[in-house]
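User: Teach me something about this protein's shape.
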Amino acid sequence: MLAVSAGAAEYASIPGGSFSSVLPPDGKAASASVAAFRLRTLPVTNGDFLEFVRAHPQWQRDRVAPLFADNQYLAHWMAPLRIDEAQRNQPVTHVSWFAATAYCEGEHARLPNWYEFEFVAAADETRADARGDVAWRERILDWYARPSTALLPDAGTGAKNFYGVYDVHGLIWEWVSDYASLMISGDNRDQGDPDLLKFCGAGALSTQDRENYAVLMRVALLSSLKAADTTANVGFRCAMDESGDT
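Assistant: First, the predicted structure itself:
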């Protein structure tokens, strides 16, 4: 697939199309549609994010407003403007949805939405949609089953997928723009219910592809987070419309 550059970052052109999502738009069996867009080939790294906070001091960990990030924001860095050089090319984690959104805006981009991410995540190295391959699904689940470690591999060390995008699986979880609405019921009778966010086991029951546990796990995790939350295994990458507009 054609890759284009947006500043120092490389973006792959994703053709878009219709596909069967684990979260059908109608809550039943309708296909989801994705317009052509561009996606960062690599997750944003610690080195990338360091340059961002240098240029935007309000996002330094000692200056960020508590509304926009919890107290674990960039906690793995040595200091607000200092990282271990061994971390430079590793995907940045301990970043909130607010911080990820601000970074992408600084790159004249945006966070991908769920359908865009799911569309790209369906691909393996040679196929646009490998979800029917049991062995491929088991390989992804095997990674999810391993305990998190303090040291992440560098971004881009794995194989690129069909679209030329690296590390969609096997490295980190990733923020999406609409993470907070993934499991909100479309039934108006549920509005105002304290159990609006239906994730984990309950959410999985309403999905179309119950065998795609790896994707369901992502939905469950993202649905359980708040925009200011940060964790040691959630990072992000940016996207933009094919026209270049955010």
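Now, about its shape. The radius of gyration is 18 Å. Residues 3-241 form a domain with the paralog of FGE (formylglycine-generating enzyme) fold (CATH 3.90.1580.10). If you'd like, I can walk through any region in more detail.
User: That's plenty for now, thanks!
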